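[audit] Reproducing an earlier prediction to check determinism. Same input, same settings, fresh worker. If the tokens differ from the archived copy the diff job will pick it up downstream; this log only records the rerun itself.
[audit] input (147 residues):
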Amino acid sequence: MKRIDIFTDGACKGNPGPGGWGAILRMGAHEKEMSGRDPETTNNRMEMTAVIRALNALKEPCDVTVHTDSRYVIDGMTKWLAGWLKRGWKNAAKQPVKNDDLWREMMEAIAPHKVRWQWVKGHNGHPENERADRLASDAADEAGRPV
């Protein structure tokens, strides 16, 4: 099984507002950068989209470490998901889970892989997190420009 490191970040100019996501996929010395944008979104949706798009770019099952500065993504996948599933996509307050469409997509994207989650402190000089942040921020800037 190939070993892959994925570094992701999301950005939003206003929350909600124009947003972007960025991801770096690394296998050994090989890297691929990815990014995308949405004209009206939230920061959390962009954080999630970065992970989903990066995982979906993998062509075969891999041993993956996802590096993200999003506690929302990490806590959702490692702490909250089991309860949401048990409660039929309701949170602890019995309200519908926000962004359940993307949580479901993330579950599908993760399914073929062995995934570990690594939290990275954002805006703290971590080289790959800074690069993913730049990709996301540039994409959010593009999303906010008139066509």
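[audit] rerun output stored. Observation attached for the diff report: The mean pLDDT is 96.
[audit] end
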